[in-house]
Design goal:
Blueprint (H helix, E strand, L loop, with lengths): L6 H14 L15 E5 L2 E4 L4 E4 L2 H4 L8 H13 L10 H13 L6 E5 L2 H16 L3 E5 L8 H6 L15 E4 L14 H19 L4 E7 L14 H12 L2 E5 L14 H4 L5 E4 L11 E5 L1 H6 L15 H16 L2 H23 L3 E7 L2 E9 L4 E2 L11 H12 L2 E2 L1 E3 L2 E4 L7 H19 L4
Parallel strand pairs: 3-14, 5-6, 5-7, 7-8, 8-9
Antiparallel strand pairs: 1-2, 2-3, 4-10, 9-10, 11-12, 12-13, 12-16, 15-16
């Protein structure tokens, strides 16, 4: 699809947005949202004809790219057949979506509770765990993000929690492993793993094992920095949960459905949780959908006892039809394998070459189509390029990096002192190389701020 220029239409879209749309996570008078005219595959464009290679996948959800014709057609067909229906009924698209998801989840996570997105999936997973165990507390990691609703944002471990942290939500945070910025003075991945597990078990002991309903972890933390856990860590958490009767919840909202080169990131670590949340990639974000995959033992709790929760749009037919089409497209077109192959053969070596040449790159980490560059002022001290949670003038180095990326036709994912490389899982080798070239130019702007 060739972008068409229409600045007047773009100005009208922008004016209506600024007059009436209240944007999330933003100071409303300080933002300048781009007016988007269209998108296809790995690209989107504005009304002035500027085209961008999307290295963000929206918010890491367009795993099959924009406007895939088979998914668009499935939504249109479902709309013509049965646009919506209440969740208490058996509906074909809902049943088929649940079946296809359950086929791919690890272990016996065979019951699917549908939600409208990732945050309410976390809300319901925590509710299930608390009722199942009869315990009040939830443990979750710093450097995490689990959603913006009241419970989910309290479980979150990044600064977006602070303004809404009630301090009485029954949530306790702990440090998960991250060797590059280790809280455990570790020098190797094995040390980091062992010490992180010891820290977690100590936290459990001091909080009281009999008070803890669940441990909630992103399989691979996403927005917080794409820190792939060391081998053995998630298996160790699984053992601690079994030891103390705690429900193990894995958040696969961002890492799931091909993002890591596997259907779920849990597959990389051969770990099966008791509950697993999903959203985003389940239907490439075409229609809002999320859910909780539930193990047999948790499902048994609600066999003859009503589950006290639900949503008007749970398993919405349009969203489920999009999920069915997306999962089928991913299977038929080898999307999961593409994420693994292009990630290993193009993205990873390309990023490591950029790190070799740019002093602003402190670390490269990731897997599949899920990567992060840690940008630093000084490689030896590992001082971040901008302070933690920087804003305004303090964030100037990252702002310069972002502007340079966009000037070179790349839309980057920026969070604090990092840029994440998270393009659609359908990206081609040529598109990946195009993005790496633009990233190369943008990193030169970041290099200006190094010491």
């Amino acid at each position: 699809m060739t972008p068409q220029t229409d600045p007047q239409a773009g100005a009208a879209v922008k004016a209506a947005d600024r007059a009436h749309v209240f944007h999330s996570w933003s100071a409303q008078e300080l933002i300048d949202p781009l007016a988007v005219a269209g998108a296809e595959g790995s690209y989107f464009w504005d009304y002035d004809g500027n085209r961008y290679l999307d290295f963000t996948s929206g918010l890491v959800f367009t795993n099959i790219g924009y406007q895939h014709p088979k998914v668009v057609a499935a939504i249109q067909e479902q709309a013509a057949t049965l646009t919506t229906f209440a969740p208490a009924f058996a509906v074909e698209s809902r049943s088929e979506a649940a079946r296809l998801i359950a086929e791919r989840t690890p272990g016996d996570l065979d019951k699917i509770f549908f939600t409208n997105g990732g945050a309410d999936a976390i809300e319901h997973a925590v509710r299930m765990a608390r009722i199942h165990t009869g315990r009040p507390k939830v443990l979750s990691a710093y450097r995490s993000y689990h959603g913006g609703t009241q419970q989910a944002v309290n479980i979150t471990g990044d600064p977006r929690r602070w303004p809404s942290d009630s301090g009485s939500a029954g949530v306790v945070h702990f440090w998960a492993p991250f060797l590059y910025r280790s809280r455990f003075y570790a020098e190797t991945e094995q040390q980091e793993c062992e010490r992180a597990l010891e820290h977690l078990e100590t936290t459990i002991a001091f909080e009281g094992p009999g008070t803890i309903a669940a441990i909630v972890l992103e399989t691979i933390p996403g927005t917080a920095g794409i820190m792939v856990p060391p081998r053995g860590y998630l298996a160790g958490v699984r053992e601690l949960c079994d030891k103390y009767g705690i429900v193990f919840v894995l958040d696969e909202v961002m890492a799931g459905f091909g993002r890591t080169g596997e259907w779920f990131a849990a597959d990389l670590f051969e770990v099966t949780p008791d509950l697993m949340t999903f959203a985003k990639g389940v239907n490439s974000g075409y229609v809002p959908l999320g859910g909780v995959a539930i193990s047999g033992k948790i499902a048994e709790t609600f066999g003859k006892r009503p589950y006290p929760g639900g949503l008007t749009y749970s398993g919405h037919p349009l969203a489920c039809a999009a999920a069915v089409a997306t999962i089928n497209v991913m299977a038929e077109e080898g999307v999961v394998a593409n994420a693994a192959v292009v990630g290993a053969q193009v993205i990873e070596p390309g990023l490591r070459e950029l790190a070799r040449r740019h002093p602003s790159v402190g670390e490269v980490r990731g897997v599949g189509m899920f990567w992060a560059l840690e940008l630093v002022k000084n490689r030896e001290t590992r001082e971040p390029l901008v302070p933690y949670n920087a804003a305004g003038e303090a964030n100037a180095p990252m702002a310069a990096f972002g502007a340079a990326a966009k000037a070179n036709g790349l839309w980057p994912f920026i969070n604090m002192n990092r840029t994440h490389v998270v393009p659609p899982c359908t990206i081609t080798e040529a598109e990946a190389k195009e993005g790496l070239a633009a990233l190369d130019a943008a990193l030169s702007a970041a290099d200006e701020y190094t010491q």
